[in-house]
Amino acid sequence: IADNLSEFSGTTSRYTAKKAGIIIIAGLLQFSSGFTSSMTYKITVYKNGTAYHDIRFDNGTANATPAISFHEITDVAANDYIEIYVNTSVATVLAVNSYLNITRIA
What we know:
- This protein is an all-beta fold.
- It contains no helices and nine strands.
- A hairpin with a 4-residue loop joins strand 1 and strand 2 (about 15).
- It starts with 7 loop residues before the first strand and ends with a strand.
């Protein structure tokens, strides 16, 4: 984990903004099993414990191990915290090469 501003907690899995600004949330979810063409998935950004925005909401894929990229630009106030939730309609397994980047741009 590269966290030059000490804004990510590995204990809570949260990004907490130290100051107000604009951030880019981007990532890649690589699944190693479990996807089917009839399942659904949703990637949701939570801000301060409340669902803020669904980044992706989609039907499944015939590819059993898809890579799903996502991004979101949002403003944050000092001490706002961000969490990312992934919900699927069937059991799936995330691969180790999944990642999340949160970058302050203003």
